[in-house]
Amino acid sequence: MHHLSIHNPATGALITQVPADDDASVAAKAAQARAAQPRWAAVPLAERKACISRFRAAIVAELESLAATMTRETGKPIKMSRNELNGLLGRLDFFLNETDASIATQTVFQDGGMIEQIEHIPLGVVANISAWNYPWFVGCNVIVPALLTGNAVLYKPSEYAALTGLAIARLLHGAGVPQEVFVPLIGGGAVGAALMEQQIDGLFFTGSYATGARIAQAMGTRMVKLQLELGGKDPTYVCDDADPKTAAESLADGAMYNTGQSCCSVERIYVHEKIHDAFVAAFVDTVKTFRAGDPASEDTYIGAITRAPQLEVLDAQVADAKAKGARLLLGGERLPGPGNWYAPTVFSNVDHTMTLMQEESFGPIIGIQKVSSDEEAVKLMNDTRYGLTAGVYTPDASRAQALLAQVNAGSVYWNCCDRVSPRLPWSGYGDSGVGLTLSTYGIQTFTRPKAWHLRSV
Ligand code: NAD
């Protein structure tokens, strides 16, 4: 049997080895899921909801140890692990409260003997290939509404969050979801690729553009619903009428929270020249208070870089920015090991010739660019192949509205950042992907709308 070795990115130490899947086990489990799915779809929604309610209760009961597991395998600071699990509870409540109405059969026309109805039927067997950075959030955004709407789920957690993936499976099974209906598949890219070979009815992917593009290519001729939630290069513009200190404190957190390893981390900051220097000073002051250290410790804010290869991406962006004239204000180098560590890094005097302002950094590093007008800011914000989120800081609501209306991003923020709500759809423009999760659309997306034309006479 194959095994997956799981390391602690904060120390490099081996945590454990877990049994891994291979082509044969993936095929066998996929066949079992297909056989089991119709029975699950026939279970009344109230009973499927009862399973998710018990899953929620089990998370609450085990929250501390689940947070510790996530911290150990991803290097996420423990407070942020707890925040993720506590935040998840609201998402579960949203799905529990909204699924009935979202998938109820709708009569949309009735005239004489003619009735037209929309029925939401489950897709069938849904595959979920997931990321490590918010494994509970991004996993449950798919798993929970997919199960509630009657699908079987083949779930491939990231190899960097496999213990969390196994914990999700254990708790779902304990809550009454049959083993064949929710199936974890353990391993790296090869197991994900084997999963795509199976007869599936939907593929929901969260991860990088590079992998997403490979998946889109592999699925090209398959008529299977495909959703890709990919990366971003999320911009924020701080207007001349904003309070520089308040904006700096909010945006430093938006850029560095989760060690910058969030799909909606603030990745580019544009500041009006009138307040640029005050903003930069306050930003640097705030980042200086962010303590790097043992992710298990309560006062740690900067944790480990989860994937070692990302250190090279950060090194290259720093070298490129320096070579092209950026001003390094803080950090700019790896922190001593063992484990994968990068110092919180702040550059000013950056421009769009630099990879720092073009490619996803996915680490605790940020570029701040001076602009002289709202028009220039909008132009720069839209100068990207991505489009996940974008924000504006100003006390002026109509100015914010006018600016954000021009920005190509799935989510826009006024005086806030790095925020996800279960009530709102999560989607992106351009290379940030296709499809969506969350909101009532993110429940219906796991169903096929079947159109009924009914003439009674
Ligand atoms: P990744 O693309 O490296 O891996 C994602 C998943 O794909 C993993 O489970 C991996 O094992 C699997 N995989 C790798 N190669 C594969 C292949 N050839 N076939 C099938 N599966 C394969 O991404 P990651 O490092 O886990 O996550 C970080 C990325 O995810 C960042 O770009 C981040 O912005 C993005 N992300 C996006 C969102 C969103 O909602 N848009 C949320 C979280 C993370």
Description:
By secondary structure, this protein is of the alpha/beta class. The strands form five sheets. A seven-stranded mixed sheet has the order 12-13-14-11-10-15-16, with helices on both faces. It has a six-stranded mixed sheet with strand order 7-6-5-8-9-18, sandwiched between helices. A three-stranded antiparallel sheet has the order 3-4-20, with no helix packed on it. α12 links the parallel β15 and β16. α2 runs antiparallel to α4, α2 packs antiparallel against α5 and α8 crosses α9. The radius of gyration is 23 Å and the shape is globular. It starts with a strand and ends with a strand. Bound molecules: nicotinamide-adenine-dinucleotide (NAD). The site of nicotinamide-adenine-dinucleotide has 31 residues, from α6 and α7.
Give the key terms.
alpha/beta; binds nicotinamide-adenine-dinucleotide; single chain; 13 helices; 457 residues
Q: What secondary-structure arrangement, pairings included, does this model have?
A:
Blueprint: E1 3-7, E2 14-19, H1 23-42, H2 45-74, H3 78-103, E3 106-111, E4 114-122, E5 125-129, H4 135-148, E6 152-156, H5 162-174, E7 182-184, H6 189-196, E8 202-206, H7 209-219, E9 225-229, E10 234-238, H8 244-256, E11 266-272, H9 276-288, H10 310-323, E12 327-330, E13 345-348, E14 365-371, H11 374-381, E15 389-393, H12 397-405, E16 411-414, E17 426-427, E18 433-434, E19 436-437, H13 441-444, E20 447-455
Helix pairs in contact: 1-6, 2-3, 2-4, 2-5, 3-4, 8-9
Bound molecules: nicotinamide-adenine-dinucleotide.
Nicotinamide-adenine-dinucleotide binds at residues 129-134, 138, 156, 158-159, 188-189, 192-193, 206-208, 211, 214-215, 229-232, 263, 307, 360, 362, 388, 426, 433.
